[in-house]
Amino acid sequence: MSAKVRDLIIGDGGKVSVQTMYDSPIANTDPAAVVSRISHLHALGCDMIRFSFVSPDDQRPFEYIAKHSVIPVVADIHFDYRLALLAIESGADKVRINPGNIGAKWKSEEIVKAALDHGTAIRIGLNSGSLPQHKSGESVPSVMVRTALEYLDWFSSWGFSNSVVSLKSSSTEETMEAARLFHNVSDVPQHIGVTEAGSSVISAVRSTWALGNLLSEGIGDTLRVSMTGEMEDEVIAGTELLRTLGLRKGGVRIVSCPRCGRHAFDTISFEKRIREKLLSLDKDISVAIMGCLVNGPGEAKGADFAITGIKDKVYLFRKGAMVRCVDADEAEEALLEAICCE
Q: How many of the other CB atoms lie within 10 Å of CB of 138?
């Protein structure tokens, strides 16, 4: 089974897509600036973006964003079903509703009717922190799976099948158990992720463990690496996870050393400064950023492009051959120029 979100197919053997969620309220934003940032996120590997839709004041900027975004746009809805109707009317490609707080069954039916009229997908998004009533002795994963199946039955009875399900917990074990339980009983596409996973480093570890295991088992059709951090880092982490698992090909692969007492070049600040510029390039190449003469020349031989610091200079390599020597403050420009001229 699959879901269609604008032109993006989720499930049914399609590519695993990467999502993020916009990190600011949109009511008072410059919609054109938001659209520009979405384009940058897309260049980094983002396939879909979600926005909190919290009041009618969000309708006008959301409408502009949905119309001009290069990737599908999702409205995140809680508590008030009427906001979902507004978002659908405003061009949302998908709406996310939370069974833990959306209210009576008839409210979901109204959302489904609007989604059918507009060709909008719906994500049934359950979080461990806002679940419907538990039955006695029922585990969190069981509650999530039971509730998702109940909503899918409702949707089916109303003639709707363009659905995605997410079952998220801040616990990696609960997240994996819920996803596996659901996978065993339904072929509806799953959005996977560990919710409230922490800061960038902590989230990357937790998410890689949980999502890597699930994806290796063939579970998961779209994902978000949720971080207390930048959207760009969420997208980079998700894209790199898929590349590491062999589920996404192409793009720039960065190899960089951790730096030690031998370094003659500040690889940490350089990599941080140039990372997004490299990852936004539409190139299928490897780039090595090395700080000293121990591993630098060797890594340069295995990379399409490389720079390495030796003494007070930075050396640029192409296909293992040294092509240029520059001062440290010229390294970024020299590397990007060499890559872009390829």
A: 12
DSSP for 250-316 reads: -SEEEEE----TT-SS-HHHHHHHHHHHHHTS---EEEEEE-STTTHHHHHHHSSEEEEEETTEEEE
114 within 8 A of 88, measured Cβ to Cβ: yes
Mean per-residue pLDDT for 63-73? 98
What SS3 state is found at 69? coil
The mean pLDDT of 130-149, rounded to a whole number, is 88
> Which range, 62-71, 301-310, 312-321, is most confident?
62-71
Distances (CA, A) of 287 to 91, 317, 334, 335: 40, 10, 13, 9
Tokens of 272: 């941080």
- What is residue 134's DSSP assignment? P
Minimal CA–CA distance to 16: which of 252, 247, 282?
A: 247
Sequence-ordered alpha helix ranges (H) in the chain? 31-44, 59-68, 81-89, 105-118, 140-157, 172-185, 200-216, 231-244, 267-279, 296-302, 331-340
Distance CA 118, CA 150 (A): 23
Q: Which 3 state secondary structure label does DSSP give 101?
A: coil
